[in-house]
Amino acid sequence: MRTFLFAGLFIISQLWPVQAANKSLPRSIRDLNGTLHTLAGRPTVLAWTGTGCPMSRLYRPRLARLATRFAGLRFLMIDSNLQDTEEELKFLAGSVPFPLVHDAKGNLARALKVERTTEVLLLDATGAVKYRGAVDNQFGFRKTKAGGVGAFRRPEPTEHFLADAITAMQAGRPIARARTEPYGCAIGLEAPEKPAAVTFHQHIEPLLQMHCQECHHRGGGGPFALETYQQAKGWSRMIAEVTGEKRMPP
Is 21 a member of any domain? Predict the structure, then answer.
């Protein structure tokens, strides 16, 4: 049954593949309040997030502290998930001390080749990417003895990737680690529909009802709901990943 679940959910992830990233960086982006932000002219941290991603939630307070520590930098939070609703985004915008950008069509994520909801990019005043990857190494995933993948949480981070990169850039020094692996949820990007023999209501929804919705329903114990086509579509890459790695279902 687990094999069939993985196969079905892997198929749904392939129905909406991530499009190739654009080569050019947008000159400006508009936040949820309508304010336009030009990406060049000022050092900027672009921090991706997602309303339903547990690891994103863990890093938001840390990003807020970094924004206070490095007050000369502009911090922008980006949400590129197609499944995140306007209501959820408005609530999120009120809980962070910096602007939230709704990358509704995923254009910014594609342009910058961002795939995870915890990824951060450090741009210099020209708009060049000086660092990309994780905020630090406190939270992540690693292989278990059983052959699967499990989450880990250190009491405190031992590597401060983003803070070190900012400090080096401000001092005019080379950044020792300009790229690290971000751990988090796969961003749910919109892509053109493809005809398929597999349908959501006939093949996928029964699997979600049987294996997922006991926890993943509105108000349930799961961090996000999996009750609608849009929700399943947005989380499809993440579903395929966690079932393939045997992190889910419990």
Answer: no
Residue 26 CB partners (closer than 8 Å, separation 6+)? 39, 107, 108, 111
Q: Burial letters for 202-232: b for 16+ Cβ neighbours within 10 Å, e otherwise?
A: ebbbebbeebbbebbbeeeebbbbbbeeebb
Please check whether residue 151 lies inside any domain of the structure: yes
Helices (H), the chain: 2-14, 54-69, 86-93, 107-111, 161-171, 205-211, 229-234, 236-244
| Whether residues 212 and 95 fall in one domain | no
Residues 107 and 42 in one domain: yes
Identify which of 184, 163, 158, 154 has the alpha carbon closest to the alpha carbon of residue 57: 184
Q: 120-123 and 100-102 as β-strands: parallel, antiparallel, unpaired? A: unpaired
Do 56 and 99 sit in the same domain of this protein?
yes
Mean pLDDT of 39-56: 92
Torsion angle of alpha carbons 250, 238, 219, 63, nearest 10°? 110
Hunting for tokens 């900012």 — which residue is that? 166
Tell whether 68 and 104 lie within a shared domain.
Answer: yes
Total domains in the chain come to: 2
User: What pLDDT, on a 0 to 100 scale, did the predictor assign at position 209?
Assistant: 79
* pTM (whole model) above 0.85: no
Range of the structural domain that residue 206 is part of:
2-15+197-244
Given 136, 171, 206, the domain boundary residue is 171
pLDDT given for residue 60 in this prediction: 95
User: Where is average pLDDT lowest: 17-21, 78-82, 141-145, 182-186?
Assistant: 17-21
Helix axis angle, 54-69 relative to 161-171, nearest 10°? Answer: 30
pLDDT at 113 over 50: yes
**What mean pLDDT comes out for the span 93-108?**
92
